[in-house]
C-alpha cells in the first residue's frame, strides 16, 4: 500500500546432501567390495598382462563390468534426480508442507505447516552503508551475538512468514487467473476470498491488512472498486495488484504489475529492476536517502516506446516506501524513490515495504476519482461524537479493522448500511483518514512493484519473495 509524500542462505540442506552423498558412496564402494566383481577384475588384469586384447574381445567379464558401470551411473543419476526433488520440495526453514495445496488454493497455510515452521524469505546480506564497510555487514552472518538476537524474535518471524506464504500462494493463483474482460470487482472478490481462506481469517488475529488495490494506467495507487463499479479490465491496461495479509498485526505489503500488451514490458521491467535495486541497497544502518538514490538511478535508465513515442521511465517522486509496524501499515519512516530526502538510518528488526512506482507521465500524483480506501488514525486520541450513527460505525470499525485500512465494500460486508454521513463525520473529526486514488496525468501509464523486507540482526530477509518476483 503506497505511502504518499542470488544470495547466500543461512540455513542449508547439508544434512540432505551429505546423506545422498553417503548413499552414492555406498553404491561405489559396493562395486569394489563385491568378491565376484573383484575376481572378474583380477582375471581381466591377468589377461592384459599376458598380452590378451581385452578391449577388442568382448567377453562375459567385460559385459558384466559394463553392466555394473551402467548400474552405478544410473544410480547416481537417480540420486541426483532425488536430490533435486528434495531441494525443490524443502522450504527455507528445513521442513516442507505436510500436504499439497489444491488448485484453486483452498487449504489454509496453517494446515500445510502444522509445526508452525513457515518458509523463510530470501536471505541476503545487509547493504553496505555509508561509513560502514562491506566486511562489517558480512560479519553479521557469523556473529553469535547477532544469532542470539535472531532467536529471541522467532515467534514474530514465524508470524510474518505465515502471512507471506498466504500472500505468495494467493498471488500465484491470481496471476494466472486474471484476464482482460473481467470486472475489477470480480477480480478483487476472487483475490480477497482466496487470501481469506489461506490466511485463516480470524477477526483481528489473522486476515487481510488492507483493501486490494487494482489501479489502472494513469492511476498509480489506492483504487479499489466500490459497490456498483462496472469497470472492466482491458487488454491495453496496465494494472497494479497491491494487497496485504497479516498474522497478529504482522503485515505483508507486496505488489506487482500485470500487463497483457507486450509493448508495456519495458515499463514493467524498469520498475521491477528499480525495486530490486532498492532492496539491495537496504540494510541496517543504511540511510533512507541512499535507497532512494539507488532506485532513481536504475529506473531512469529505462525507456518505453508507446505509439511511436519514446518515454523515459520516471519515478513518481511523491510516492514512497515505508516502515511497517504491528497493525500499522505506515509506521513513521518513509523510503524515497528519488535521491535526496531523509538521512535517517534503518535499524535492526525493522520491517520495510520497499515500493517503487514508475510513470510515463509527469512523475507526480494527485488525489482523483471516488475515494474507496479509509483507515482509522493510529495516533488520534479520544474524540467525542454527537451522532449515534457515527458511534455505531466507529464501533464496527474498531471490531473488524482496528487500525488496519478498509474500504466501503468491506464496511458493507461487515453489515454497515446507510453509513455515508457517519463516515464523513468520522473523517471530518480526524478519527478516520480518507485515502483517495492517486493519479498521474491522464493518458500516461504507471507501474509498481513492492516487497516487504525484515532487517534481522544477522541478515536481510526479503520475506515476501516468491518464484514470480
From TrEMBL:
A divalent metal cation 2 binds at residues 253, 322, 355, 450. Its EC number is 3.4.11.18. InterPro entries: Creatinase/aminopeptidase-like, Met_Aminopeptidase_Type2, Pept_M24, Pept_M24_MAP, Pept_M24A_MAP2, Pept_M24A_MAP2_BS, WH-like_DNA-bd_sf, WH_DNA-bd_sf. Its cofactor is Co(2+); Zn(2+); Mn(2+); Fe(2+). One of its GO terms (molecular function) is metalloaminopeptidase activity. Binds 2 divalent metal cations per subunit. Has a high-affinity and a low affinity metal-binding site. The true nature of the physiological cofactor is under debate. The enzyme is active with cobalt, zinc, manganese or divalent iron ions. Most likely, methionine aminopeptidases function as mononuclear Fe(2+)-metalloproteases under physiological conditions, and the catalytically relevant metal-binding site has been assigned to the histidine-containing high-affinity site. Residues 17-29 have a biased composition (Acidic residues). It is an enzyme of class 3 (hydrolase). Pfam families: Peptidase_M24. Transmembrane segments: none annotated. One of its GO terms (cellular component) is cytoplasm. Gene3D superfamilies: Creatinase/methionine aminopeptidase superfamily, Winged helix-like DNA-binding domain superfamily/Winged helix DNA-binding domain. It catalyses: Release of N-terminal amino acids, preferentially methionine, from peptides and arylamides. Residues 36-47, 83-93 have a biased composition (Basic residues). Keywords: Aminopeptidase, Cytoplasm, Hydrolase, Metal-binding, Protease. A divalent metal cation 1 binds at residues 242, 253, 450. Residues 1-143 are annotated as: Disordered. Its main location: cytoplasm. Residues 132-143 have a biased composition (Basic and acidic residues). It is found in: Cytoplasm. Belongs to the peptidase M24A family. Methionine aminopeptidase eukaryotic type 2 subfamily. This is Methionine aminopeptidase 2. It comes from Mythimna separata (Oriental armyworm).
Amino acid at each position: 500500500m503506497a505511502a504518499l509524500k542470488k544470495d547466500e542462505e543461512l540455513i542449508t540442506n547439508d544434512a540432505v546432501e551429505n546423506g545422498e552423498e553417503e548413499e552414492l558412496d555406498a553404491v561405489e564402494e559396493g562395486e569394489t567390495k563385491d568378491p565376484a566383481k573383484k575376481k572378474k577384475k583380477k582375471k581381466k588384469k591377468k589377461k592384459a598382462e599376458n598380452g590378451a586384447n581385452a578391449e577388442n574381445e568382448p567377453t562375459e567379464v567385460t559385459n558384466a563390468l559394463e553392466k555394473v558401470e551402467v548400474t552405478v551411473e544410473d544410480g547416481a543419476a537417480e540420486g541426483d534426480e532425488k536430490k533435486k526433488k528434495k531441494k525443490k520440495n524443502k522450504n527455507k526453514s528445513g521442513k516442507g508442507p505436510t500436504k499439497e495445496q489444491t488448485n484453486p488454493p483452498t487449504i489454509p497455510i496453517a494446515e500445510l505447516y502444522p509445526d508452525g515452521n513457515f518458509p523463510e524469505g530470501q536471505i541476503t546480506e545487509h547493504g553496505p552503508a555509508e561509513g560502514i564497510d562491506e566486511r562489517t555487514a558480512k560479519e553479521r552472518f557469523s556473529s553469535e551475538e547477532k544469532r542470539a538476537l535472531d532467536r529471541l524474535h522467532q515467534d514474530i518471524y514465524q508470524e510474518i512468514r505465515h502471512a507471506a506464504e498466504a500472500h505468495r500462494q494467493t498471488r500465484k493463483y491470481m496471476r494466472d487467473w486474471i484476464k482482460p474482460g473481467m470486472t475489477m470487482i470480480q477480480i478483487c472478490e476472487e483475490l480477497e476470498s482466496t487470501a481469506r481462506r489461506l490466511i485463516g481469517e480470524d477477526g483481528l488475529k489473522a486476515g487481510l491488512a488492507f483493501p486490494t488495490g487494482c489501479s489502472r494506467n494513469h492511476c498509480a495507487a489506492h483504487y479499489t472498486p466500490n459497490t456498483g463499479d462496472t469497470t472492466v479490465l482491458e487488454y491495453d491496461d496496465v494494472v497494479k495488484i497491491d494487497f496485504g495479509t497479516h498474522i497478529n498485526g504482522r503485515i505483508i505489503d507486496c505488489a506487482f504489475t500485470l500487463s497483457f500488451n507486450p509493448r508495456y514490458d519495458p515499463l514493467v521491467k524498469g520498475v521491477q529492476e528499480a525495486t530490486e535495486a532498492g532492496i539491495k541497497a537496504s540494510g541496517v544502518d543504511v540511510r533512507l536517502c541512499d535507497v532512494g538514490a539507488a532506485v532513481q538511478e536504475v529506473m531512469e535508465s529505462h525507456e518505453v516506446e508507446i505509439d511511436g513515442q519514446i518515454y523515459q521511465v520516471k519515478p513518481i517522486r511523491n510516492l514512497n516506501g515505508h516502515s511497517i509496524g504491528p497493525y500499522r501499515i505506515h509506521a513513521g519512516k518513509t523510503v524515497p524513490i528519488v535521491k535526496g530526502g531523509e538521512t535517517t538510518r534503518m535499524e535492526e528488526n525493522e520491517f520495510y515495504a520497499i515500493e517503487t512506482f514508475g510513470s510515463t507521465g509527469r512523475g507526480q500524483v494527485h488525489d482523483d476519482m471516488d475515494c474507496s480506501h479509509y483507515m482509522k488514525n493510529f495516533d488520534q486520541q479520544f474524540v467525542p461524537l454527537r451522532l449515534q450513527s457515527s458511534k455505531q460505525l466507529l464501533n464496527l470499525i474498531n471490531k473488524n479493522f482496528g487500525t488496519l485500512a478498509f474500504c466501503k465494500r468491506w464496511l458493507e460486508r461487515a453489515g454497515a448500511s446507510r453509513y455515508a454521513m457517519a463516515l464523513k463525520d468520522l473523517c471530518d473529526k480526524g478519527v478516520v483518514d480518507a485515502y483517495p486514488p492517486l493519479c498521474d496525468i491522464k493518458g500516461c501509464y504507471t507501474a509498481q512493484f513492492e516487497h516487504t523486507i525484515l532487517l534481522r540482526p544477522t541478515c536481510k530477509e526479503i520475506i515476501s519473495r516468491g518464484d514470480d518476483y
